[in-house]
Amino acid sequence: xxxxxxxxxxxxxxxxxxxxxxxxxxxxxxxxxxxxxxxxxxxxxxxxxxxxxxxxxxxxxxxxxxxxxxxxxxxxxxxxxxxxxxxxxxxxxxxxxxxxxxxxxxxxxxxxxxxxxxxxxxxxxxxxxxxxxxxxxxxxxxxxxxxxxxxxxxxxxxxxxxxxxxxxxxxxxxxxxxxxxxxxxxxxxxxxxxxxxxxxxxxxxxxxxxxxxxxxxxxxxxxxxxxxxxxxxxxxxxxxxxxxxxxxxxxxxxxxxxxxxxxxx
Length: 265
Prior knowledge:
The protein is of the alpha/beta class. It has one domain (22-229): Alpha/Beta hydrolase fold, catalytic domain (Rossmann fold). Helices cover 25% and strands 25% of the residues. The protein has helices at 62-75, 104-117, 130-138, 159-168, 185-192, 214-225, and strands at 4-6, 11-12, 16-23, 29-36, 44-49, 77-82, 88-89, 92-93, 123-128, 144-150, 172-177, 198-203, 235-237, 241-242. The strands form four sheets. Strands 3-4-6-5-9-10-11-12 form an eight-stranded mixed β-sheet, sandwiched between helices. Strands 1-13 form a two-stranded antiparallel ribbon. β7 (88-89) and β8 form a beta hairpin.
């Protein structure tokens, strides 16, 4: 009889993982990783855009590292994560300096170029907080199928950016915490009303950082990107690896509460 291992917050499931370096058109080298299904080709791809690096955001922010640890095995997805310019994590630090969402357009373009060159299928942007503004402003690339926004603050994206998505017609999903620090579901519905195809999903009881809500978020993501593969299982048939996540205890918004936010556009 096969032993079932319970999937916990620091569970790492099998995948083909490869560290990579992305090269931007303005000459920077960015630290990244791609995780692929262990024994098959991916059915779709998530390109992850992390939260604000001045407030602890990075490629290893908890939702993204858990997506990379779980979704290749459980949902057959490729998960591409990277540190935007000037951002560091245990994986390493990308060249350059934080540019408040301007120069980061080249970082996203480099990730999409990698995905296209390596024939990664059905590319979706999975963009969290600061990353969601990057997706709205710069994500309408021909290789992109659609975008899923987590806790979108709508700080630097404008109505013109939303109108561009509306005119384009590609899927746009916003997962909005009921208790978000920046934009809550009623505000999000009002802002996204100008995008006819936008789907705003209110997550009851959740907050901006999604602590304790990983499973709900990943289920919602997989339901859009790989229909039929959610809800995700909560156990794995066999042994698993347990990651040490203690190094990230100080990489949270709460730990950086006194750091000023960049200005809105």
